[in-house]
Amino acid sequence: MNQRIAPAANENHPAAAHGPTVRLTAAQALVRYLAAQRVTCEDGSGRTEPLFGGVFAIFGHGNVAGLGEALYHWRHELPTLRAHNEQAMAHSAIAFAKAHLRRRMMAVTTSIGPGATNLVTAAALAHVNRLPLLLLPGDIFVSREPDPVLQQVEDMHDGGVSANDALKPVSRYFDRIVHPAQLLTALPRALRVLTDAAQCGPVTLALPQDVQATAWDYPASFFTPRLVNFHAAAPVQVEIDAALVPIFRAKRPLIIAGGGVLYSRASEALQALAAARGIPVAETQAGKGSLAWDDPLNVGAIGVTGSPAANALAADADCILAIGTRLQDFTTGSNSLFRHAHVIGVNTNGFDAIKHDGLAVEADARLTLAALGGELGNWRADANWTARALQLASAWRESVEHLTHAPQDRNCLPYDADVIGAVQRSSSRSPTDDIVVCAAGTLPAELHKLWRAGRPGAYHVEYGYSCMGYEIAGGLGAKLARPDREVIVMVGDGSYLMMNSEIATSVMLGAKLIIVVLDNRGYGCINRLQQACGGAPFNNLFDDCAQGPLGAPRIDFASHARSLGAQAEHVGNIAELEIAMQRARASMRTYLISIDTDPARTTEDGGWWWEVAVPEVSSRATVRVARERYDEALAARGGREPGRGAHEAAHAEDNAADETQDDPGNEEPT
């Protein structure tokens, strides 16, 4: 690598105005620039550390010669980590950023073709969850001389299209670098998006392989180490004044804490405002951990997977202060939960702040809470409202204690609440030191209600995209970010089978995970939803799937994990699980525990309607009954008589599963 420093060739050279130059390939310049970015350490010491924790890489012909060589040279300043699946390594990078509350991040590089398109799902996950992720896929030749190259997707109508264009809809910023000089503008733009609270999300810099290898004289100043400042807007007074009007009128306010509370480091400000003003706080999936689980005013999870305390208060609230949440349907109960409240949306992203017809305060959560607190004077929530919130929160904490400590019937399979209780009881230290990681299926609902998150970052559940397969890869990213914490991945058998190869990566990197696999022999969550919508059990649990003469396999997850280098065991009940958790905590390497669980049982306490469209016409009586309930719920959302909805019925509508055969005699006319 030639890193000579020399004056620009002549005064007309694009870099001449910047003084001395460094001749580097585009790939070398990109890596050197990333390695130069610094952030202040979170420990308060005043020291700095790299903004990028490293680069996950799976090399191929599209990136090994250019970017691979550059990463090798800078491997000490910017570590390169090998993974086993492109989507999974991007999930790990996302989880690393989430565990650092968006203050540090990672990059991911792949070859062209399938390596690049494997990134699309992970990019969508980062986009939905507003998390920083730098994608560096290889691309086809700009020169087009060797076209079509191996793995090239040829568009018959646009010669400039490559597989990487599939990443455009799921990137917050996309750029294809067709000349080395373009990095001078593309990299600062990318960094701004990655570190801006309002824009934060995935960035894709597509890197044609001939451009990666092309040299150019870069300004030496471009690579000067620099301290990155994270941008978040302060509230403007006119928006604070507008928000104060409905707050002053409110007697029954409720705060909904979203992920923005955590990312803005606003937990202390939230707790102070809630305590001073007597306002109960409910938490979204992304915001869980904003308040300690035992804070008197923490009323628990909100929405479809919410606690009875939070949802009862949300239904009666006259003012909702939605802080750092994008108000997706699981939070709002498909817009049916708090229809009669004034909503104030506090969010750095104006697109999110105005949701649910919200009055927007487009600003940082911590700064906004401080500004509101200073303007509220003697205002407090109605004393009866605060007393009701305190009573409901206390009662819910007692219910959680009961649900997670229920005596076990040896003749019945345990369910998720039993496993959650055993996992948290197994900690010899405070269970708040653990980080739980999960993503899809029934477990996020149970964890949202029942996991006791004692501090920010203790609850790491990806539910914005609800992406099966995130769990183990996400656990790896969280462990790389927080190596001093016990990272516990809780995952269903369905998600495990979708993506598990990063177990081997965790062993290779010495990033120890505890993985608890709840085996209910299929997709139990969707099986219940299917029946609640009137459908027959079909294609979800193994027993209800098309099978060959050998039937469905009996999967030994413990043996599988051992084959990937982990320690592992299968346990037969909750008592054995608690003992196995002690062995797992004492282990120095990734440790998997599998346990058989009940696919039908869930926690009945709490929950809310979720809109899942049910067919208007069906020959099945159960579908017609489900459609009637659906229509009633739609009417209730419109302000008429309340009805029960499909998701609520998933816990209790046994009659929806009674009829499992088609009934042609009941065919309805179309």
From TrEMBL:
Transferase found in the keyword field: no
One of the GO biological process terms: isoleucine biosynthetic process
Ranges of Acidic residues composition bias in the record: 655-670
InterPro entries: DHS-like_NAD/FAD-binding_dom, Myo_inos_IolD, THDP-binding, Thiamin_PyroP_enz_cen_dom, Thiamin_PyroP_enz_TPP-bd_dom, TPP-bd_CS, TPP_enz, TPP_enzyme_TPP-bd
GO molecular function: 3D-(3,5/4)-trihydroxycyclohexane-1,2-dione hydrolase activity; acetolactate synthase activity; flavin adenine dinucleotide binding; magnesium ion binding; thiamine pyrophosphate binding
GO cellular-component term (any): acetolactate synthase complex
E.C. number(s) listed in UniProt: 3.7.1.22
Chain segments annotated as transmembrane: none
Enzyme class: hydrolase
Domain Thiamine pyrophosphate enzyme N-terminal TPP-binding: 75-152
Start-end of Basic and acidic residues biased regions: 634-654
Domain Thiamine pyrophosphate enzyme TPP-binding: 440-594
PROSITE patterns: TPP_ENZYMES
Domain Thiamine pyrophosphate enzyme central span(s) in chain numbering: 241-372
Keyword entries, A-Z: Hydrolase, Thiamine pyrophosphate
Protein name: 3D-(3,5/4)-trihydroxycyclohexane-1,2-dione acylhydrolase (Decyclizing)
Native organism: Paraburkholderia dinghuensis
